[in-house]
Fold this protein.
Amino acid sequence: MAKVLVTGMSGTGKSTALEALAARGHRTVDTDTDAWSHWVTAPDGSPDWVWREDAMAELLDGHREGSLFVAGCKSNQGRFYARFDHVVLLSAPAGVMLARIAARTNNPFGKLPEEREAILNDLALVEPLLRATATHEIDASAPLDRVVRQLEALTQRDAPVRPGMDRGNATKAS
């Protein structure tokens, strides 16, 4: 009954990993939809795409069987870390991320120069924050099957690393 948050920058393969996990029979939720996220105005006046907290609470509180993999990278996701057994950062070099974004056909984000600039800015500013709060990090430049196997392995461990534990217990899988 493990609950795993898969987070990371655009282009690290969160959605692709979830598709593969779903094909293997796992319950998955990609939060980049209106059902799970919505736009709000941040304190600085900028738009922010955040989780619908009521929907996320209902999902996490109601999950009772099997493994649940949730993907997303939202400014309010930290409010839910205690409800996950694992918070996994998918990371990849900037060149890998930008190449994937350029090639993908299921998401238009990242095609414009200003969007690519924002992605690189987030890589520099946001990814270190995610790394500091993740319980595991997976090198998402590895083949998809390897990434998926590493995610699945987290659901089979007897003593999961909990968010908020000493980060010395976090692992970097490769």
About this structure: Confidence is low (pLDDT under 50) at residues 162-174. Residues 1 and 66 are 5 Å apart (CA to CA). The longest helix spans residues 113-125.
